[in-house]
Amino acid sequence: MSEDGLRRSLDKMRREGLADAAVATFESYYRQLEAGETGLMPETELEPVDSLDDFDDLPDEAVDRDLLDRAVVVKLNGGLGTSMGMTGPKSLLEVSDGKTFLDVTARQVLALREATGARLPLLLMHSFATRDASLDALGDYDDLEADLPLDFVQNREPKLLAEDLTPVEWPADPALEWCPPGHGDLYTALQSSGVLERLLDEGYRYAFVSNVDNLGATFEPRILAWFAGSGAPFAMEAADRTTADRKGGHLARRAEGGGLVLREIAQTPDDDVDAFQDTERHRFFNTNNLWVDLEALARVLEERGDVLGLPMIVNAKTVDPGDKASPEVIQIETAMGSALGVFEGATALRVPRERFVAVKATSDLLVLRSDAYTLADDGRLVLDASREGVAPLVELDDAYKLIRDFDERFPAGAPSLVGAQALTVEGDVTFGRDVVVRGSVVVQGPREVADGEVLEG
């Protein structure tokens, strides 16, 4: 039955006009799946990483202009923000001073070009659902496009019925028959779109890659110099794990061979979850800020027939994410950070926490919209100096999960959090104008916090 499922899946992808490299990559993972591969990485096959090169030890000196001219910034912009109730690109959500993720990203790149004189193109990897709206939103930035196209589009693949691995059919909404292959598709999409070849032809060699919703992920010339000087084909920025990072992917070493790898929670056997979440054993998490030698990427893809061979992630879902009674499906995914275990000689750099300012939930958004952060002229989000590098910890009730409900409960904007250690909101609470939070505060609803009220823990 699965051989029939593979044939039907490949036919469906070809009818959709997907590139040969995308089809070949899907076929490789499908055959692993039907052979019983799970993509799991048991703790017995791993060892902890004790130390890494450190950002704080990098030379604080000007970086060669010729090296800067060989670099490109790539931002992943494929998310719809569905977990927050959005239907459009997550990158169009306002984060600070009326600016969206895309506004901030554009400002960061333009400021770096002005400061360094380098070409520094911006490339956006869209999903099939985010491209048009994102490009429309960037229409006012006439000077943003450099000597390259501004974007390329991520591939897509069929969702597979869990019971027989055939491509799902869903006439009620055919778009739900498809899914993105995870952000590990970055490398395939770069190659199959022709953008990788174009980059190399134009003299670019080094790509800084990050998620568009991580506003701490600015292009850092000193890291570029470290990466180029290392001769490594690939590097990951890693930060110290805290209890808040227990579910995020962590670095490890293979017990056999000693090479670095990335393990995600979806790749962890149930019996090893405690070890996965042990932040003292596995000390470093993946910020998803990556540095890629494009020449090395092109060489490895050519050697492997356009199939990079990232570790597989098997994701169990329902065909309609909003209807748990709809048929169970499997989505085959990969993580772009897992290239750490694919490139021989790949490395990692320990970076400060401020290079990871990601917005995964409305609680993160509240902190960014508050006075704990300031949006600088160069597009950097700067944490107030009084915070000594530690942002306030915010936990919001489920009533705030969706962006429309969140905005209704903060109609006058975020409260002051610059003097707050933590804010926990339990129940339905609406905040008035100019509310101030100091120390560690728990607010229980239902209630309304009056204009100008000071909440102290």
Describe this structure in a few short sentences.
By secondary structure, the protein is of the alpha/beta class.
Tell me about this structure.
The protein is an alpha/beta fold and 457 residues long. 24% of the residues lie in helices and 26% in strands. The chain has 12 helices and 26 strands. Strand 13 and strand 14 form a beta hairpin. Helix 2 runs antiparallel to helix 6. The radius of gyration is 22 Å and the shape is globular.
Helix-strand layout with pairing:
Layout: H1 2-15, H2 20-34, E1 46-47, E2 53-54, H3 65-68, E3 71-77, E4 94-96, E5 99-100, H4 101-116, E6 122-126, H5 131-137, E7 151-153, E8 157-158, E9 160-161, E10 178-179, H6 186-192, H7 195-201, E11 206-211, H8 221-230, E12 234-240, E13 250-254, E14 260-263, H9 273-276, E15 284-293, H10 294-303, E16 313-318, E17 328-333, E18 347-350, H11 362-369, E19 373-375, E20 381-383, E21 393-396, H12 403-409, E22 416-426, E23 429-431, E24 436-444, E25 447-449, E26 454-456
Parallel strand pairs: 2-18, 3-6, 3-11, 6-7, 12-18, 21-22, 22-24, 23-25, 24-26
Antiparallel strand pairs: 1-13, 4-5, 8-10, 9-17, 11-15, 12-15, 13-14, 16-17, 19-20
